[in-house]
Amino acid sequence: MSDVARNTPPGAAATAAPMISIQGLRKLYPQGSRTITALDGVDLEVPAGDVHGIIGHSGAGKSTLVRCLTLLDRPTEGSVSINGADLASGSDRDLLNARRRIGMVFQHANLLSSRTALDNVAYPLEVTGKDKTARRARAQELLSLVGLEGFENSYPAQLSGGQRQRVGIARALATEPDILLCDEPTSALDPATTDGILELIRDLSSRLGLTVLVITHEMHVVKRLCDSVSLLEAGRIVEGGPLADVASRLDHRLSAALLPLPESALDTEGTLVEVLGRGESAGIPVASLIENRFDQPVRVVAGSIEDLAGERFSHYLLSLPDPGPSPTGAEAPADAAVVVDFLKEWGFQVQVRTRTQLEAAQDTAQTLGGAQ
Amino acid sequence: MNWLTELIENPVITNALPEALVETLQMVAISGVLTVLIGGALGVILHVTSPAGLRPVRWLNALLSAVVVNITRSIPYAILMLALIPFTQWLVGTAIGPIAACVSLTIATVPFFARLVETSLREVPSGTVDAARVMGSTRGQIIRKVMLPEAMPGLVASVTTTLVTLVGYSAMAGLIGGGGLGRLAYNYGYQRWDPGVMLVIIVIIVLLVQLIQWIGDLIIRRVDHR
């Protein structure tokens, strides 16, 4: 597990204490005579100011992780600390104070239907005992921050899903928390509203220097929002790292989900080669590069070019003709291994793929919501 | 229109009826207030101590729901009010009159109202309560600021239902000395067989129930923002 997320972005001091530190988190649930292992040793560190995504499909342990992070459930083993303070230790009073350092955004906003937007945002301040004038002023300020000026006296039922989520975000920020924990923040919203909310979270995190942890099952959310990502599977984090690094690891499933190839028929002749270019090499036309060098035709089976985390990525699936005497009597095409080495010299990541492997990658892309 | 003038000039209608109405209102109001306070608290405790509640206390929850709520609810009011006469005598010094009737009325409706309160509180989405917990609310804050306000439409409906039930019970209580419209109907409508008085009392009780329901619905519309 050498590549488990230790997400120190380039340039950040390696010695700086992480804002979120999760160590050896395990959660077991008794179910009848059996024991269900929901979390099986989760380790994660998120540096201050980072937007980190945890992706996994249902049953991977996402909900349990959220409940353990907010101590709605006590972890069986392991520790969670936020800004150096251990959440699990101490009295009930300490727990309340620790919770007030976490701002949480829920999938369904979970607003109080009996309160107006303004009073919903003021709720966390009311709980901490701020006086009425101060909390109304702060709530007003937060509502403008999320773009809901003029909706102060609207009740949640009078707001759209996206507006309700904005109120939820404003409320999460009310106590000036160290971290913002977003649990499937856009899963109940339509695509256009989703992008608006993601943009808002992204914008707030950079303006307020917030550390954000986003739990989601949609790769789209990770692409639009996150600096770094972890893949949660069967209660463990199995892959992770800064977004661009993870994307460029051709042998990883997060890469298959981040940079999916369009679905294509894989019934072509020849050797299938997957090629991934990052940054400068993403601009190189791979097919003609090979054709010029080896004087043989190359078929592009599928390809995509995408910008991710400020970098350009190109991802191709090429079909090279099988070696052996050419039917036209021309020179025999070069062996695939030679082409692979040649492309590696040009800075590409290259893998010869079987059809089974490619189908597995397409499945991964689909289950993690990365396929178009 | 002879029967109408006769009815209006009937001393039972002009003298005894207003007095009986006041007694009924007194019984409903006093036991209503006591029921809302005691039954409300009991309902909150039932919900909070339940296995999925804020503070599960298994034995207390089992005790309250089995012994208090179920047993008292399964005894018909007609029997309960008779059985409680010695207790009422001891508590208020008399078993006669509207105040004495309030003892058995309150004891009968508290468990009923407590169950309604518990049901209303259970309908508050667990996500809303989780959100309040995550925001660092204490248990008391969650009950006062989240659960009760969120359940308010259901709670007001429960109060309405309870008051309507009390109007019915108070008529029964009137038979054994509580007074009020129940006794008037029994004494004049039944024993003296005066159908005019009986009819007027029925109309007044129907109007009273309608009024309670109407006010309840009005308040629900004001507090329901869902």
UniProtKB/TrEMBL annotation, chain A:
GO terms for cellular component: plasma membrane. Pfam families: ABC_tran. Keywords: Amino-acid transport, ATP-binding, Cell membrane, Membrane, Nucleotide-binding, Translocase, Transport. One of its GO terms (molecular function) is ATP binding. GO terms for biological process: amino acid transport. Gene3D superfamilies: P-loop containing nucleotide triphosphate hydrolases (3.40.50.300). SMART domains: AAA (SM00382). Residues 20-259 form the ABC transporter domain. Belongs to the ABC transporter superfamily. Part of the ABC transporter FtsEX involved in cellular division. Has ATPase activity. Homodimer. Forms a membrane-associated complex with FtsX. This is D-methionine transport system ATP-binding protein.
From TrEMBL, chain B:
Belongs to the binding-protein-dependent transport system permease family. CysTW subfamily. It comes from Micrococcus terreus. PROSITE patterns: ABC_TM1. One of its GO terms (cellular component) is plasma membrane. Keywords: Cell membrane, Membrane, Transmembrane, Transmembrane helix, Transport. It is a multi-pass membrane protein. The chain crosses the membrane at residues 27-48, 60-84, 90-114, 154-176, 196-220. Residues 21-213 form the ABC transmembrane type-1 domain. Gene3D superfamilies: MetI-like. InterPro entries: AA_ABC_Transporter_Permease, MetI-like, MetI-like_sf. GO terms for biological process: D-methionine transmembrane transport. It is found in: Cell membrane. Its main location: membrane. This is D-methionine transport system permease protein.
